[in-house]
Amino acid sequence: MPISERLALLGSGVFARNDQRKQVYQRRWQAAAPSGEPLPPLLDLSLGSTDLQPPAVALDAIAAGLNRPESASYCLHGATRPFREAVAGWAGRRFGVAVDPDREVLLLVGSQEGTAHLPLAVLNPGDPALLLDPYYPSHLGGLQLASARPVLLPLDADRGWRPDFDQLASAEWDALKLMVLGFPHNPTATTGEQLWLDQAVQRALRHDIVLAHDNPYVDLALDGEAPALLRNPAWRQCGIEFFSFSKSWCLGGYRLAFAIGAEWLITALRQLKGVVDFNQSLALQAGAIAALEQAPEWPQQLREVYRERRDRMAAALEAQGWPVRLPSMALYLWLQLPEVARRRGLNSETFAAALLEGTGVCLTPGHGFGPAGEGWQRLALVHPAAELEASAERIGAWLRQL
Fold it and tell me: Residue 371: how many CB atoms within 10 A of its CB?
């Protein structure tokens, strides 16, 4: 049976390929257990899906909401108003900005949903759109679904991953219709600076470009304060910003997120969402409201946990001969392939596959985040520090065998 060219262009995706490899390894491990073969259990460090738990007040609110009959009903946009009011209150406390809950806030089924759908709402087929390289996969996927033309802006480790907007000529800026940024940055785990975002706003205003800022890690900067589009007074003229409960409040599996942006962009994205989906249960929204209003300190607790994990895992890998650039954002290490792997001719994908097969430790190959990610691995700090250190020993022993 035929499939669309668009679907073929999307490909399998780096997380799907990793998932297949993990399933193969799990079957090997299960088969080896009865025979006593020394095969270590899978340690999945490939996804930013934390082992840390959400605040109890959020889970209690969800549990209480499940007993209400309306929580089992479809939820249309009008019923999300309490959630949107809570978001507006959070934005006022967090950024000191007044936000209209009716015109400038939209509930999302995870921030990936918003970033993937936005291009369908603002671009025509063939329109050029700027992406950072490396990028988060849904940023490219959204452009491909919209049949847009990606224009990549490579980030350089030697520049501290700072975007060099002068890489594009003025004519290229004039042609752009959308610019997708995200700082703190995934996968490089760079917090970034407000100046970078302010420079992007200036470009967007000058060249009439929509600026989309993906900001699920706004509360997880370990060094300095995270940038935000809402901190720039011109956000209503050109921009939309995406936030998530997955990282700050450990609610990734509940698929709760929101966008704050210019009224015309929120309206366009809302119109698109109205065609393709409804919203999450009111019970889940009650948990999100409780997180915003009753657990504002939760991200601070997470940062201290991630800081310890970052420092201990970086030291453990260094001790095994794998140099680490210490990141300024929680949750990830962005690791250049070890010299021995490069000598062996391994690229990011073949290295990740061989590492999983040889050690049971699963990382995400950098190529899955764009051409500039080739030669790198993303490691998620989503297990206790002692387990991370043990995984470093596994990795070090395997590297020595290479």
Answer: 12
